[in-house]
């Protein structure tokens, strides 16, 4: 396991993922019944932006560094949460964002396989009775820890895409989980380096007839150079009511801040499979 999210936390694609994640969590909070969140690839939970890892790449400066000052419009809630978490010293990962939106009756389950990152994550939430932290393989955990006892909630699948076959593993996990736990909202992040693997991922979901999948994609530039992270997508299955419109507004507000008016920059919300 070579990937460490500390080098990339708060970059443009993290910002897109987390701004959409906040909207999905707010939709779950809008109903009184308890919910659970399973974050299958959790990372550290929170990131120090003065760390040597974050300083080495400086990626956060072209990401959250351009968004954290927003106080109005579709990014306002997310940006306020980032400031409340301690920006510009700290950037909250998906576990901290989810934790901040739990009510007392809600639960958060985190899986992280990197031993050091798992130890950091476990220590972070060791006194928190609403959070469970597992040193566990995501692909095994997504089977073992679902469906939730609450019967509602969100599964976030956010692999590092450092080894081949990650798109296939995501498609297979989505298909099985959608079948076994229809009530869950499932969000799966993916990189857009070039178009071919993304098209194949969407085609796999269509061939498996995984119901009710939409994608929210942000392009920082035309995805022609596969050695660069040119954008990202969030595949959302069983999206809450009105999510597509809100996602368009969120990503539309990010494009002018993150994409430097590069050719091919933009965003798109696309229905991949029917309800
Ligand atoms: N979800 C986090 C966030 O948004 O703040 C970022 C997660 S990062 C992209 C991916 C994480 O998955 C890394 O910390 C990596 O160590 C972990 N990981 C990689 N393979 C895994 C596996 N099979 N099971 C669980 N965690 C894994």
Structure notes:
With 275 residues, the chain is an alpha/beta fold. The chain has a single domain, classed as 3-Layer(aba) Sandwich (Rossmann fold), CATH 3.40.50. The chain is 37% helix and 20% strand. It is built from 9 helices and 10 strands. The strands form 2 sheets. An 8-stranded mixed sheet has the order 5-4-1-6-7-9-8-10, sandwiched between helices. Strand 4, helix 5 and strand 5 form a beta-alpha-beta unit. Helix 1 packs antiparallel against helix 9 and helix 7 runs parallel beside helix 8. The chain is globular. The site of S-adenosylmethionine has 21 residues, from helix 6.
SSE diagram, text form:
Layout: H1 12-29, E1 36-39, E2 46-48, H2 52-57, H3 76-85, E3 90-92, H4 94-100, E4 107-111, H5 115-124, E5 131-134, H6 138-144, E6 153-157, H7 166-180, E7 185-192, H8 195-207, E8 213-219, E9 231-237, H9 243-258, E10 266-273
Parallel strand pairs: 1-4, 1-6, 4-5, 6-7
Antiparallel strand pairs: 2-3, 7-9, 8-9, 8-10
S-adenosylmethionine is lined by residues 1, 3, 5, 17, 39, 41-43, 93-94, 111-114, 117, 137-139, 158-160.
Q: How would a textbook summarize the main sheet? A: 8 strands, mixed
CATH topology: Rossmann fold
Shape: globular
Number of strands: 10
Kindly report the average pLDDT value: 97
Order of the strands making up the biggest sheet = 5-4-1-6-7-9-8-10
State the end-to-end distance: 37 Å
Spans of 5+ residues with little confidence (pLDDT < 50)?
none
CATH class term: Alpha Beta
Q: Determine the fraction of residues in helical runs and give it as a percent range.
A: 25-40%
CATH H-level name... which superfamily?
Answer: Vaccinia Virus protein VP39
Number of domains: 1
Cofactors and ligands: S-adenosylmethionine
With helices defined by DSSP (H or I, 4 residues minimum), what is the helix count?
A: 9
Derived from helix and strand composition plus strand pairing, the structural class reads alpha/beta
CATH architecture title: 3-Layer(aba) Sandwich
Order of helices and strands: HEEHHEHEHEHEHEHEEHE
